[in-house]
Amino acid sequence: MVQKDYEDIPGTFVFDADRARVGYHLNQFCISLGKAAGREAFAADPDGYMKSFGMTEDQMQAVRDRDWNRILELGGNIYYSSKLGANDGLSFQQLAGLMTGMGHEAYRDMMLNGGRTIEGNRYKKEWKEEE
Amino acid sequence: MARITAGVACSHVPAIGAAIDLGKTDEDYWKPLFKGFEKSKEWIAEAKPDVIFMVYNDHCTAFDASVIPTFALGCAAEFQPADEGWGPRPVPVVKNHGVMASHIAQSLILDEFDITVMNEMEVDHGLTVPLSLMFGQPEEWPCLVIPLAVNVVMYPAPTGNRCYQLGKAIRRAVESFDEDLNVVIFGTGGMSHQLQYKRAGLINQEWDQRFLDMMENDPVAASQIPHVEYMREAGSEGVEMVMWSVMRGALDETVKPVHRFYHVPASNTAVGHLILENTE
């Protein structure tokens, strides 16, 4: 089997070919929101529109909950899920505030102060996360 | 014959494009960033490239999740700026040197780089933001642009070495084109950034500066950086810096550094920029 030497990076979902396969229908749904026709159809009938993409119930629930991290865990990718964010009026930076759990203001201040340091953020064991 | 005279490395953060389009370049947040490109604008006005070979990545604009080509070369006559959810950027249409593009496609494939040919394609901020940074807001882009889209959205992106070798093949393709043309190659994206999940916001200035040093002085070492190092040290989205190695591979091993600029932050990202000239 292919070695996934990146699975020990903390707080990170690498969107690899496996996740692209699992998340395909969810991602196609998100991408469709980049165009006005998709946004309108989603607003008119959220569940019917999501079902038309063949998404799993878990994926649809994550979208209903706007659980941005769960969307990634179920095969979503940030470049795609950001289209759902834009649909809701959220910028990349606001999404990052939500995904990190820091909130937008604290996240923005962290970026203005040079961003999240690499020290203590290289390995899951430094975060006491399971590998 | 056509010649590659210089390379430009440049971030493509979408918020930079929005700042230009909305007239915010003089605001305190953005001013230091745009100051770093003043010299670049002067340089490119002087260098007057006929053609820019633009190595960039698409952000699910030309490609949705159904088709993910590793290398896709634009051969269409022109490329419209795409609607990425907020309406198309108010920038000129990107015009191609179609004859040269299809020559390069043929040359690359026979040189064993199995690229995808795009006879129709919209382009997003990945391609237009570097043009805006270098040229400002002209009515028309002052040169032709050949786009090469590289997959860096789905892991794995092509390896640094593959990108570096592709740069060499692009140089061979350009130099076997008969028309007398001044070509500047761009490698875009980066530098350190992570847009997703709980570690979002990662910036590693020390690593970025080392990478800039390598781009100037030791491109072979840069081409050997494994993906896991990019992702661990420069953030999961930092891996897109492999595109800089395509640009660097198309230049001489020893180059003349003309300009270097680094700035944190633009939105979620560390911005890096280099201008390197061929001397041979």
Tag the structure with descriptive keywords:
heterodimer; A: 131 residues; mainly alpha; Protocatechuate 4,5-dioxygenase, Chain A; 2 domains; 57% helix; B: alpha/beta; Protocatechuate 4,5-dioxygenase, Chain B; eight-stranded mixed β-sheet; two-stranded antiparallel sheet; globular
How is the topology of this model organized?
The complex is a heterodimer of chains A (131) and B (280).
Chain A: H1 17-22, H2 24-32, H3 36-44, H4 46-51, H5 57-64, H6 68-73, H7 78-87, H8 92-99, H9 104-112, H10 124-127
Helix pairs in contact in A: 2-7, 8-9
Chain B: E1 3-10, H1 14-21, H2 31-35, H3 38-47, E2 51-56, E3 71-74, E4 78-79, E5 94-95, H4 98-110, E6 116-118, H5 125-135, E7 144-150, H6 160-175, E8 182-188, H7 205-217, H8 219-223, H9 227-234, H10 242-249, E9 256-266, E10 269-277
Parallel strand pairs in B: 1-8, 2-7, 2-8, 3-6
Antiparallel strand pairs in B: 1-10, 3-7, 4-5, 9-10
Helix pairs in contact in B: 1-5, 4-6, 6-10
